[in-house]
Design a protein that fits this description.
Largest sheet: 2 strands, antiparallel
Strand order of the largest sheet: 1-2
Shape: rod-shaped
Radius of gyration: 27 Å
Number of helices: 4
Order of helices and strands: HHHEEH
Helix content: over 70%
Amino acid sequence: MSRTESRTMFDRPYERPATNPLLRGLATLARALAGFALTFIELLAEFLAPLLLLAGGIWWLALQLAGGLTLEPELQQYLQYLPRQLQIGGEWLTPGGLIRQGLLLMAVVAACRTLNRLIGREL
């Protein structure tokens, strides 16, 4: 082969081989179902992330403010009832844990959007 022939061989655009319409339909259905699942997860995480971040931040701030208060001894004993952790459904919740979970859910949202964009480009 000459040099010009090899160059033109690689310059041709990629052509997809003809596929069965049933296989193309199944591939489209699989992409649609994956897109639906990713969008559902994204919406759920997008709803919960700010709630967890806000709840954890307010709880942490309340603990910090309560720890810095100087009150009369009669009132000081009631500050001990402000929980530093809660057990709900067998899980221990802390302010830092809620903040970390909120940030993790924000990362899940970003990952779902990225994957949805990649799936959209394949169509």
